[in-house]
From TrEMBL:
Its EC number is 7.2.1.3. Keywords: Electron transport, Heme, Iron, Membrane, Metal-binding, Transmembrane, Transmembrane helix, Transport. Residues 1-193 form the Cytochrome b561 domain. The chain crosses the membrane at residues 7-26, 32-49, 70-89, 101-123, 135-159, 171-192. One of its GO terms (molecular function) is metal ion binding. This is ascorbate ferrireductase (transmembrane). It comes from the Eukaryota. PROSITE patterns: CYTOCHROME_B561. It is found in: Membrane. Its cofactor is heme b.
Length: 208
């Protein structure tokens, strides 16, 4: 995981370098989106996975949940700022919204983020909900990781937009595309593991 994080930081640093934050209103879009989704949200997901998050082993579950929530809030604010910058830039240039694969995946990620936040609140206040806690927890996990996976797909599509292709070579775009693919694979591995943990493991215990 250390090598993966170093690779991610190197790629994100390079991406920020070529977009030159502040050179235009649009330049803040890839900057905030990349930091918010590929660093903050990524670490927020891994916090809840044993032996993968930045917190040391033995950290209480309550501390993990609080850290997870804080990271998700920070990630959301960065992503919202990135979305606002591109929306304003397109309005000024009279460019239609959601007319590319990159923007469509980004829009899906935004909608899923709203549902994921609602599911997270329901999970934190599960005593007030008639839905069994394990289903609330699983729903929150699935929505969150699907939302993050949509972010990864948006980033992969974004590597082949006119803005990025004009500033990179095919080899560099391939390297940049590998980054969200790593996070994408991590997300679905986590979904499968959590499904087995929440639904199949209790049944095995009860059958003994």
């Amino acid at each position: 995981m250390i090598l993966i994080r170093l690779y991610m930081l190197a790629v994100i640093g390079f991406l920020i370098y070529i977009t030159d934050p502040g050179s235009s209103l649009f330049s803040w879009h890839p900057t905030f989106m990349t930091i918010g989704s590929m660093i903050i949200l990524y670490e927020g997901v891994l916090i809840m996975v044993p032996n993968r998050g930045l917190l040391i082993n033995g950290t209480s579950q309550n501390t993990k949940r609080n850290t997870h929530s804080i990271l998700q809030i920070i990630g959301f604010l960065l992503i919202f700022t990135g979305f606002t910058s591109v929306a304003m830039a397109k309005e000024r240039a009279k460019i239609p919204h959601f007319n590319s694969l990159h923007s469509l995946f980004g829009g899906i990620a935004g909608v899923l983020l709203g549902f994921q936040i609602a599911a997270g609140l329901a999970t934190r206040f599960q005593r007030l909900s008639p839905i069994p806690p394990k289903y609330l927890k699983f729903g929150h996990i699935v929505l969150g990781l699907l939302q993050y996976s949509a972010c990864c797909l948006a980033l992969m599509a974004g590597m082949h937009t006119d803005y990025i292709t004009a500033r990179t070579t095919p080899f560099i775009r391939t390297v940049l595309t590998v980054l969200p693919m790593i996070a994408f694979g991590t997300s679905f591995t986590t979904i499968i593991n959590k499904f087995l943990e929440i639904f199949l493991k209790p049944k095995c215990i009860q059958s003994k």
